[in-house]
Amino acid sequence: xxxxxxxxxxxxxxxxxxxxxxxxxxxxxxxxxxxxxxxxxxxxxxxxxxxxxxxxxxxxxxxxxxxxxxxxxxxxxxxxxxxxxxxxxxxxxxxxxxxxxxxxxxxxxxxxxxxxxxxxxxxxxxxxxxxxxxxxxxxxxxxxxxxxxxxxxxxxxxxxxxxxxxxxxxxx
Length: 172
Description:
By secondary structure, the protein is mostly helical. It has helices spanning 2-24, 31-38, 42-48, 52-72, 81-95, 97-108, 112-135, 141-160. This is TetR/AcrR family transcriptional regulator.
C-alpha cells in the first residue's frame, strides 16, 4: 500500500513539475518551486527525482509519449488521416497545454541529457508519422510528414508565445 501512495506522490510531483516548468521555463524553475506547488518539502522531491534535470526529463518523456499514444489511437480513412491526426493533436493541446509548452522549452535547453530526450521524442513522432502516412498511401510521404511536423511545431510555438496569428491569418 505504501508503494501506491508513493506512486501517487511521484505523480503529483511530476504534474507540479509540468506546470511550473511550463510557466517558468527550465532555467528559472527550482525544485523548491515544484515542492511548493506540490505542497511538500523540497527534500521530498529528491526522494523521487534525484535532480531537477531528471524531473524535467520525466515530464518531457511524458509529453512525447502522450503525443504518440494520441496519434496511435486515431482512427481514420487514408483520405482523412492527416486531418484527424491534427484534430487529435489540437484536443491533446487543450487537455495538456503544459506539455505543449514543455516541448518548446525542451528544444531550447542546452543540457545534453535533455537535448537527447528532445531528439529522441521528436524522432519517434517523425518515425511513427512516416510509417502511418506510408501505410495510408499518402503521396510524397517524406514532404507530407515534414510539413505535418513543421506545422505542429509552429502551433506549439504559437501557443507558447500566445501569438495565434502565426497559424491563424484571421487574427492579423
